[in-house]
Amino acid sequence: LIEEEFPDLLSLENLQMAAGPPPATTEPGDRGLYRQQCASCHGESGQGRGSVAASQNPYPREFRNGWFKYRSTERQSKPLKEDLSRILRHGLGDSQMPKFTKLSDRQIDALVDYVIYLSIRGELERKLLNAAAFDLDLDAGDRVYDPSNAEKAKEQLETASELLNEVAGAWERASRKVEVFDPPKDFPIIGTETAENRDRLAESIEKGHKLFLGEVAACSKCHGESAKGEGNQAPDYDDWIKEWTKKIGIEPTDNEELLPFLARGGLKPQALKPRNIVAGHLRGGREPLDIYRRIRYGIPGATMPAAAMAAAPGGPGLTNDDIWHLVNYVLSIAQVPTPPQTSTQ
Questions:
Q1: Half-sphere exposure of 222 (CA within 13 A, CB side)
Q2: Quick one: residue 254, left, alpha or beta (phi over 0 = left, psi -120 to 50 = alpha)?
Q3: DSSP letters along 112-133, please?
Q4: N or C terminus: fewer CB in 10 A for the chain?
Q5: C-alpha distances in Å from residue 26, one per residue of 14, 85, 243
């Protein structure tokens, strides 16, 4: 169905390269790439609970609910393929996500397509399970798919097809959800400054510092006045944790309530740590536009909110210029860290 409705979304050749058991050799080949390179962390089905996941902080990403943190698209949109391939090529600093420098462009493309496939499959399965739990009377014999009743089976397949098109369509539409944000004309940006605008750049950095500490941007509440992640906000958790704890009335710190979930393979909740900006591990990219988007859109799935933008000139909230001032301040204090480790395979 995906190939028929969205022929440019996934390549069958790429999926064949990534799927299946890993090759006998440790060298990347033309089969089994995902299990060889990714499954020990992200799990074979993309559920984020691979064999080494429990030892990591943060935990590996789960793909099955369709949430992705770092992207160039709007907050509620899917990432671009380029967003996923960039993470594979460059890794994520201050985490166990390495950079895969030994993989060819085609192998990277294969893994990107397979991650999207796992995400689509997982999100579809979750929607079908949700329908089974809340819309069907399983005790009375209702089933998500009942081949013994031709009329029902046809309706059920149509429903599944509609859900699949909804999930896959969100990926197909991602390229139309990219906004390009350019600084105002002659606005000084770190990395592009000249002798003529150096003083204006210093003014921009100072404005960004004041915004960082102020109530409107409120960056220091989480990141701290020193920008080292030492704010005074209470510990919080990402949406992956909240989904199976707070959303069903369980506190992530209640060990007794967590036991049934942990016994079935759940990972003990980890509290989020606000980014130490000074250390320079700016996940999602450290180009000015990358940082602009992190501030403007926030980080979906995490506690980093979208910026409160002014609805009208002079109204409450941040302006486009304000965000660029914050970008300059962040880049002025962020050190250049040791790059992420390189995958050994």
A1: 15
A2: beta
A3: HHHHHHHHHHHHHHHHHHHHHH
A4: N
A5: 19, 22, 36
In 3D, which of 82, 174, 56, 156 has the Cα closest to residue 120? 174
- List all residues 6 or more positions away from 85 whose beta carbon is below 8 Å from its beta carbon: 108, 109, 112
Instruction: Indicate the residue type of 271.
Output: A
**Residue 296 amino acid letter:** R
| Beta carbons of 251 and 257 less than 8 angstroms apart | yes
Q: Over its length of 345 residues, how does the chain's per-residue pLDDT go in tens digits? A: 566 778 889 999 999 999 999 877 767 778 899 999 999 999 999 999 999 999 999 999 999 999 999 999 998 899 999 999 999 999 999 999 999 999 999 999 999 999 999 999 999 999 998 888 888 787 888 888 888 888 888 988 888 999 999 999 999 999 999 988 999 888 999 988 787 889 999 999 999 999 999 999 999 999 999 999 999 988 899 999 999 999 999 999 999 999 999 999 999 999 999 999 999 999 989 999 999 999 999 999 999 999 999 998 889 999 999 999 999 999 999 998 777 777 766
Residue 312: what are its φ and ψ, rounded to 5°? -150, 155
Beta bridge partners of residue 342, listed in sequence order: 99
Q: Which amino acid is at 182?
A: D
At 223, the amino acid letter reads: H
Q: Which domains does the chain have, with CATH numbers?
A: 1-178 (no CATH), 198-236+272-333 (1.10.760.10)
Q: Which two tokens stand for residue 64?
A: 């099955």
Q: Which residue intervals of the chain are DSSP H helices?
A: 2-5, 12-18, 33-37, 39-42, 81-90, 105-134, 150-172, 198-213, 220-223, 239-242, 255-263, 288-297, 320-333
Residue ranges of the alpha helices (H) in 219-314? 220-223, 239-242, 255-263, 288-297
Burial 150-161 (b: 16+ CB within 10 A, else e): eeeeeebeebbe
Query: For residue 203, what are the CA distances in angstroms to 120, 147, 208, 321, 342?
Result: 47, 69, 9, 12, 39
